[in-house]
Amino acid sequence: MSASARLVTTLAAVLDPATATVPEVLCLPDRTLVLQSDDTELVAYDLAEALAGGEVSVARFPAPWPRRFGTHTVAPGRDVAVFAGVHAVRAVDRQGATLWEVRHGCWEGSCRELHASADEYVGHVENGGNVENSGNVENTVGRSHRYADSGSAVFSADGKLVWAHVRGPLAEIDDDPDVVDEWLVLDAADGTVLGKADAQTVAAGSEHVSHPDPGQMGLSVGEGQDGVPLLWGRWTGERLTVDRIGDDDRCLMAVSPSGEHFLTVTHYQEALALHRVEDGSVVSELDAEEVIPDHPALHPDNDEPEVRWDYYGGFLDEHTVIAGTSEADEEYGAGRHWLVDVQDMRLLGEVTYPFPTSGVPGTLGDGSWYTIAEDTKELQVWRLADV
To answer: Could you give the CA distance from residue 176 to residue 98 in angstroms, rounded to a whole number?
Structure first.
């Protein structure tokens, strides 16, 4: 069984595709933002406005440091951007003025400095990171911070909070130099630390997955080969509590529109799972090898094809998920995307496109999804042909 996709529109990249990142999609309860960055700025626009046609208002934020030094997010109103950097979480306005900053431990694992400024390491990376001179202190700093780990940050559904995953200790609060990773709830207006918890992780990177309730948030932490801790946070207005879900082997992919369920994929990508948000329990699972047919370009002599789900996918509606096997399929040919009914975890069929697409599918929160053109970085918006 297959499901035909129809192209809704193609949106050109705002920044130069040669120097910018691929577009990122930030789904919020009442709007969806498209973000893109290069080494000098972060831009954001409202997807609904772009789909309506006409001139699109693009918010632009000067970047406090080059893009390799962390991650970023934008407030629902597109008036504030937050950069989660190597040494600090910083909020800026559209002119680039710092609204607030929370300094924390350095994400470069061997560095114990509480940096006062990104200038302490950015200049070394840019000027000395590629010079093979191990006796030069500046170049050593450059090489190490060039590949620093990273945290992440995101605004709550109502824009009043910022959830941030940082490397401890906090410069102004913690007095224990051995604090590793912390999960913070910040006042979005002034950066005040309202709540914090020991994440009990040693992250190489992390990603927040928003929930419709401003007081709830999911956090997926990558620890390389050591696992993928999944944390679920709840903020009461006075206290932050954190639950660790699973055995550090599930990567959080998406939250359902109602907020009642979330979707995960196992660390080694064998199975999708639907969970209850209430307690994190698994409702049902779908194993890739049991349901995904062999790739049509598979060589007939290959009797042990490896099939794996991608790490990215999401809900088209409360009961329908789109997920890919693109990463595993690359060995044999074009990547494939699939529809899954999560009510009974049943494969509905493969998505067929009118022309070749690349990469993984990402959902847009309104029953549509997107792919990104590999060469132009255009955002291709899709719907099912019969919808």
So the answer is: 27
What is the CATH architecture assignment of 64-248? Beta Barrel (2.40)
3-state secondary structure 282-295: EEEEEEHHHHCCCC
Q: What is the mean pLDDT of the chain?
A: 92
Q: Tell me, what's the pLDDT at 30? A: 83
Tokens representing residue 19 in the block: 């120097």
What is the Cα–Cα distance from 142 to 69, expressed in whole angstroms? Answer: 12
Contact between 379 and 10 (Cβ < 8 Å): yes
Q: Write down the pLDDT at residue 297.
A: 86
Question: Hey, what are 94's tokens?
Answer: 């559209």
Instruction: Quote the tokens at residue 360.
Output: 């993984």
Which of 42-56, 172-186, 315-329, 371-385 has the weakest average pLDDT? Answer: 172-186
Separation CA 34–CA 336 (nearest Å): 24
**Positive or negative CA dihedral for 107, 81, 310, 252?**
positive
Q: Where are the domains of the chain?
A: 64-248
